[in-house]
Write a structure and sequence with these properties.
Layout: E1 2-7, E2 15-19, E3 29-38, H1 40-47, E4 59-60, E5 64-72, E6 84-87, E7 90-91, H2 97-100, E8 114-115, E9 127-130, E10 136-138, H3 144-147, H4 153-162, E11 173-177, H5 181-193, E12 198-203, H6 206-214, E13 219-222, H7 225-234, E14 240-245, H8 250-259, E15 260-268, E16 288-290, H9 297-308, E17 316-320, H10 324-332, E18 339-343
Parallel strand pairs: 11-12, 11-14, 12-13, 14-15, 15-16, 17-18
Antiparallel strand pairs: 1-2, 1-4, 3-5, 3-9, 3-18, 5-6, 6-10, 7-8
Helix pairs in contact: 4-5
Length: about 350
């Protein structure tokens, strides 16, 4: 048996519970967890009202996972016991066109799409069962306790930025709304992939904005009407080519719509349940409004390569499994400056 930090029921605090240690079946692999990131997506799951139909069964939280191969099930190949790995989060059918090119986050058979920690057992436990070695990416010399958030915070930001790279270059501007874990990664990725772009970070926290500046933001603005004016001034009244909203609440989306330019991209990553009114009067003409989800397996390989080269780095705060509830409380209060990572073996 082992302890696991589990979702119990809608709008109830998660709990540490005794569960069996999983045994890998055919093609499966058991991971000894080094780190499991605590994400705002988990807060949305915990705080959401019950959905119609049968109640969700308890499951272990943790969809940002990295660790070491502990045991291979029959027929599982490609890795050896002890290999450090990061786990790709969204698990598709593996057979549709999107899955076959590594886009399992957009599996075309929705009933087959799963993710450990988002409905089935995740990594906030000493051991984590992964359905196939195709979801494992070698970490090399990276420490799994620090690398875990690369699988979501970095991958999600990377995917969101990469789709808009053709808009970015000398004289262009990217606005990052929300300078928490995802925002900090987005700033670093923008700096690496499009170094000539002017990067503007916007947040309500001066502490997070200071971190954003240290990670490559050219300008850091407290969220306000004055910030909108400043962005317009910096872009000669045109607005930004790319606006990434990593919050997704109505006030941030309102700001995003006001500062996105004609033919630009307004990309909604945050799960704040806000909405952008789209009509002829706004956002700006032919501004594309998109809500990408996670990222592709090949992109996670690229993200890991950037981290191995020291070009991106997640600011992490470690918590032992017994302090997981405290980590989520601090996350809810906005007191985690980067990413809280649960480390079950510390």
């Amino acid at each position: 048996m082992m302890k696991a930090f589990q979702f119990i029921a809608a709008q109830k605090p998660a709990e540490l519970r005794e569960v069996p240690v999983p045994e890998p079946g055919a093609g499966q692999v058991l991971i000894k967890i080094g780190g499991a990131g605590a994400c705002h997506s988990d807060l949305h799951i915990l705080e959401a009202p019950p959905k119609p139909g049968p109640a969700r069964k308890p499951f272990t939280l943790g969809h940002e996972n990295a660790g070491w191969v502990e045991k291979l099930g029959p027929g599982a190949t490609g890795f050896s016991i002890g290999d450090p790995v990061i786990v790709y989060g969204p698990w598709g059918c593996g057979l549709c066109m999107n899955c076959r090119v590594g886009r399992e986050n957009y599996c075309q058979n929705p009933g087959d799409t799963k993710a450990g920690g988002l409905g089935s057992d995740g990594g906030m436990a000493p051991y984590f069962l992964v359905p196939s070695t195709r979801f494992l990416i070698p970490l090399g010399t990276l420490d799994p306790r620090d690398a875990a958030p690369l699988s979501d915070a970095a991958l999600t930001s990377y995917h969101a930025v990469k789709r808009s790279l053709h808009l970015l270059g000398p004289g262009s501007t990217a606005v990052v709304i929300g300078a928490g874990g995802l925002g900090q990664m987005a700033i670093q990725i923008l700096r690496v992939l499009s170094g000539a772009t002017t990067i503007i970070a916007v947040d309500t926290s001066s502490d997070k904005l200071a971190i954003a500046k240290s990670m490559g933001a050219d300008e850091a603005l407290i969220s306000s009407d004055a910030a909108v004016t400043r962005i317009k001034d910096m872009t000669r009244g045109q607005g930004a080519e790319l606006v990434l909203d990593l919050v997704g609440a109505n006030p941030t989306l309102d700001m995003a719509a006001r500062v996105a330019r004609v033919l630009g991209h307004l990309t909604i990553v945050g799960l704040g349940s806000g909405a952008v009114p789209v009509n002829f009067r706004g956002p700006a003409m032919e501004c594309s409004v998109s809500s990408p989800y996670w990222g592709y397996i090949p992109e996670l390989i690229e993200v890991v390569s950037l981290a191995q080269a020291g070009k991106i780095k997640m600011l992490v705060e470690h918590f032992p499994l017994e302090r997981a509830a405290e980590a989520y409380h601090l996350l809810h209060e906005g007191k985690i400056n980067g990413r809280a990572v649960i480390t079950p073996h510390d």
